[in-house]
Write a structure and sequence with these properties.
Length: 204
Amino acid sequence: MEYISLFVKSIFVDNMIFAYFLGMCSYLAVSKNVKTANGLGIAVIFVLLCTLPLNYLLDRYVLQPGALSWLGDSFKDVDLSFLSFILFIAVIAAFVQIVEMVVEKFLPALYSSLGIFLPLIAVNCAILGGSLFMQQREFAGVGEAATYALGSGIGWWLAIVALAAIREKLAYSKVPAPLKGLGITFMVVGLMGMAFMTFMGISL
């Protein structure tokens, strides 16, 4: 039950886009059509699901103060927490490189449509934010970290696909000229954010 609560909360209550505004640059740039948004969203889910549990283990057994005590008593006072950012980003960049190679090999059309935003997953603040939130919330085990990663990824995917679907419909709507493009998009994102805020009152 605890895992289900964490999973649902990470999708709706602690949504990376609407609760913390993380990953907004690629969210706005790649949400012009559903197919491209869906591809990027799945890539974000995969990278989060692979990197967050790995970063959890790295934090638990290498980076935290005294985490290296399993190597012997002489390491019990070692604190490598200052390396968190560097090592987290290194792990994320490695998996993003794998995703980029796979997409380029098997889905060249999607690779072309995503352009620079696929390799930029490595510096997507939603991905790094997931690892930093994991570190802050002190999850009890790698299972909780993986559940949070999956939920956060699905929440980001849901947000970008929903916006892409709305923007596709808006292309056929009579939008006033000054609001066309990013103007109406910002208004839609604001309304979606307000809608997701209603989930914050749910006790999980």
